[in-house]
Every structure is written in structure tokens, then in C-alpha cells.
Design brief:
heterodimer; A: mainly alpha; ABC transporter involved in vitamin B12 uptake, BtuC; two-stranded antiparallel sheet; 12 helices; 2 strands; about 5% strand; B: alpha/beta; Rossmann fold; 2 domains; seven-stranded mixed sheet; 13 helices
Amino acid sequence: MSGILVATQLFNGLSLASIYLLAALGLALSFGLMRVINMAHGELLMLGGYFAWGTLGLVPGPLGILVALPVAFLGSAAVGAVIETTLIRRLSARPLDTLLGTWGVSLILQQAARDLFGAIGVEVRAPDWLSGAWTLGGVTLPSARLFIMLVALAVLGALALLLRRSRLGLLVRAVNQDRMMASACGIDAGRVDLAVFCLGSGIAGMAGVMLALLGPVTPNVGQGYIVPAFLVVVMGGLGSILGTTVAALILGLFLALSQIFVDVSIAQMLMLVFVIVFIQFRPQGVAPARTRALDA
Amino acid sequence: MAFSPSSRKSALLVAAALVALPLGACHKSGPAVSGNSVTVGVLQSLTGTMAISEITVKNAELLAIEEINAKGGVMGKEIAPVVEDGASDPSTFAQKAAKLVESDHAATVFGGWTSASRKAMLPVFERTHNLLWYPVQFEGNECSPAIMYSGAQPNQQALPAFDWAVKQGFKTFYLVGSDYVYPRTANLILKKHIEQGGLKVLGEDYVPLGGTDFSGIIAKIQQAKPAIVINTLNGDSNVAFFKQLQAAGLSTKVLPVMSFSIGEQEAKAMGAALVEGSYASWNYFQSLSSPDNAAFVAAYRKKYGADAAITDPMIHGYLDVYAWKAAVEKAGSFDPQAVRKAAAALGAFDTPMGKVSFATNQSLVQKAYIGKLKADGQFEIISSSPAEIQPEPYDPLAFPGKTCKL
């Protein structure tokens, strides 16, 4: 075991953590506020990949990927709005119904992508400025992974600012802490729900663009990320942005560092065991959100 | 606790299903030769993760059936194919195989792709004494009278690739694969041969099927600095692997990669630019030049699209149907037991991949080729085995003392 390998895996752990964070943030938002377990979250990621493909087709050239980020954000947010208004809103009185309902949406979106774009998947290539790699003391730092970290940091910062400083953030925090009291004060909780669900969906879309730089864009690509995303949310403390971030870091580093000793299959198994043991000792997660919704 | 009306109804349904199950299994299964047609099964994944590869094999099998019917069928009878969907799920494959044999009375079945699907179907064909024609390269270490193994045995794909690598002067190897029976067994065999040749395996890593994170593996490859990577990843994982190799500065020009599951179709789907310059080992490449191959490519494209890519398993699926026809005619019977014996005694026949024959162990005697992927998604054939290779289901180094006698 050499120092360079450990340093490389530390970097890879941070890179994985940034991917997990992007994939999990939207899930944490919708669960934290609405208690909705969105099984279609992976498909919103998948849509982001297809939005990237479509945008790169229309805007070729080095900056296409930067255009794809807002396009995917808006596109996935729009799909999220449709899901929220047509389905989740009508089922949200019973959380298990939303689980089944969104699972159905997930299947429909997968099949729709298969019918529209083919089962084979589409080709998204990283632009030249993202295909190189930097070397720092023998450690290779691929530009694509550095870029994903930057985007994850930017999204996290913007989200924190939005929740802490904006009026929407104030409303979200109010509804999150006590939905009935907030409604009694005249806050339209339904509209806050819609805004948060769209925001979460939009972040999933951006995550999909980032994933397309490193992986395939296929109808079922979202399935591969939904389980780690749920693990991050559960471990983070349901609905807490800070907890989600810390949990993404812990799991990313755990997976990368364990790969120094074992292969990926075993590492993923160890990660599951780790999360189960962690939840045994700290069922509330890393940093639970304080909310009345959990008192019931 | 009282039964609610709905749960009583479902209890009744379950009971009815339990009664019906053994009844269903009582059907006598003999080949369906009725009047002037004979039923055969075509069983591939038409949905799910394997659909990308298997739909085209189904197409090739149906093309062969159509061509044979156009020329008068088999022993004067038209072939009536029943197409079923294995849905990329081994237990569905087993269930549909039983349905094809027992309720459709198929004379034989063409199909399967993953080793898991083959292993799931095997007991069905052994129990019903029927015959499965399996079109895909696999890990060997299996020998059943109920299957005609037309895809490559390890000594017809993996070992020729290894021999080629040795000839190129590659001395150190890194093995990367999906975590299931084929990569694990193929690598077990390769490791034995690498060690015997006095060469080195610098690492061996597995990713769950469909896995997309290769950062750790690539870090280990960068540390180990192997001369060549042997890649037995399956499906979408390949896209992630090559993208992340490229991002880490290890393009195929810097680090040669030999893949066992990337054919023309997969290269096209991944974007040939991503995998250009990587190597593959197959028994057929679309770029093979022969009149038989040109005729097949033209016929397939006429039916399924002018830009369709043709792959090794498609050719195996296609030739399986012709081999079955020839064997039925040689045996003078549709009985699977007579057919499998006749198939092994057919001798060499012409196919788009050249002359092949079935050995007495029911595997195909065939050549092996090494190709290098070009920017247009086609392979340039850079090496070929001097002659057809006899199939060896049990590698003598990895499985000493085991033989396949049928």
C-alpha cells in the first residue's frame, strides 16, 4: 500500500462524495419537507443525462456542457412539477401511496426513455477541456471529477443560501418545522411543497448531466444511483442538508478507502454493513432535522 | 382475526394455483409436428438490461427461419417459431423455456445469453429431454447433452486472446470484470495460463453488474502499471469504464485493453471514438471478407435496417438454426435425442463465419480472431488462429481431470 494510492483514493472518495451529494440532495429536500419517498428520483437523474445529450446535439462545442446544466435543471424541474401536481399532491395524505405511485412513475419514465431514445442508450462525450487530467505529486486528478466537485460545492452553497437567506427559504423552514402552524399563519404549504419538489428534481437533473461525464446514459442508469442516494439520506438524518452532506462525505470516503484493500463488490457490501451498524447506534442519523412532522 | 372478503378471495386463488401447478406439469411433451409445420422456440431477452444485445440475436434467428421456410422448410414442414421474452431475468428464462417445451411442444429452442440464463434453463431441458441451442461465448466448465454450445469455449476466445497478448510481448496483466460467473471463471482460467507462462497478474477486480464507479480500480491500475488490461465487463459498465479511463489520461493508446464482451453493436452504442484502438477477441467480425458473410450482412440489413451492426452472437444464433435443420434432415426425425447425435456427426458446413462443425461434446469447432477497433465502429482483423480450434469445455490447467463425454 503506497502513499500515492491512499492519496488517490482520498481524492476519489471526495469525488464519489460529490456525486452522491448531487444525487441525494433532491431526495433529502422532498423527504425532509413532504415525507415523500420519491422512487422516481433516479429517473429524474436519468432525464438529466438525456437533457445533456439533447443540449450537446443543439449546442456542440466546448461550452455545451455549461448550457446543459441549466437546461437539465429546468427540464427536470418541469417534469418534477408535473409529478408533484398530478400525483404526489393527491396521494400525500398516505406516505406509502406516494412510494408506490412514484415507483410507477419511475417505471413509466424508464419505458418512455426506452421507446423514445432506444434501449441502447445515447452517447455523451466530455468536451476536450474536461477530458484531461492534472497531476499533483503523482496523484492523477481528472478534470471531469474536479469539475463535478466544483458543481457540487456550488449547488450546495446556492441551496444553503436559498434556505437561509431567501423568503422561499424562510417559508420552507417554517413548513418544515410545523406544517399546520405554518398553514395557520397563512403560508400556502402546497405551493411551498411544489417549489421544493421542483428544486429537488432540478438538482437531480444537474446531477444527471454530471454523471453523463463519467458513465453511460441509458434508460435504467438512474437505478444504479437510487440506492446510494437513499443510503446517504437515511444516514444523514432524514431531511437535513448538513447531515446529507456529511453522510455523502463519509460514505464516499468509506467506499473509496475500502477499495484499497478489497474490490468494488466487497466494498459496496461493507458500505451497507457500515450504514446498518451506524443506524443501530445513531438511528436519528448524522444531523437530524428538527421537525414536528416526525413527532407523529 | 377474521378473513376479510378480499383476503378470502386471494386465499382461494392461491389454493387454486397450487392445485393447478402439478396439473400443468403433467402435460406430455413431444415435439409439435402437426400437419405441415413444426414448432420451435426462440427465447431471448426482449426487455431489460440485456435487450440491447439479445434482440438482434432473436432477429438473426428469425431471419434464418424465414430463409429456410422460403426454401421449403425442414423435411417438407414449415418452421413455426414461438418467440418468448426472457426479460433479462434467469428465472423468467427457466419459466419460458418450460412453457415453450411443455405447452407449445417446441421441437427445440434457440436462445439464452448470460451464463445465469443458461444455468437456469439447463434443468428444464434436461428434465424434458429437449435441446437448447446456445449462441454466446461463455466460461465452459459445463457439459450437458441438453445444450448445443455454439458460442466460444474459453479456449476459443479467452486463450487465443492471451496467446496473442504474449506474442505482442505483453508481460503483465490486469483483470477487470463484472461480478458474476463468466468473468470469474474466465479469469480463473487466464490466471492459471498467465502463471504457467511465467508472466504476472498485477491485479484482479470485480464490479457488480451494471456498476458505474471505476475510480478505485483505475487508481490501482495506475499504481500497478500493467502492460495490458483484460476486460470482462458486461453491458453499460463498459461505457463508464472507458470514459473514466480516458478522464484519468489512460486512453487506449496509452494502455491497451482487450475486451471479451464488446462487439460491433456495443462499440456503436458506446460511441466508437471512446473505445477506438481497443482490442476484442471473437469468432466472427462483421469485417470478415467472404461471400457468405457479405450475403448475410446484406440480407440482415435488408430486413432490419441499412446501418445495423452485425455481431458474433448473432451469427452463432443464425448458424444454430441451419445446423438444427441439417441435423433433423440427417436424423430423419425431429426427436431431440436423434437431432443432437446427428448434429455432432454433421461434419463441416459453411456459415458467414466460415466452415464450422459440431464436435462430439456438442460445442462448435471454430476459428478465433483478434480485432482492433477502428473509428467507424468496425474491427480490423489483426490476427487469426491458424486453423479451426477444437472446443475444450474443461480447461486442463484450471479444471484438471475433468472431461466432457457425451
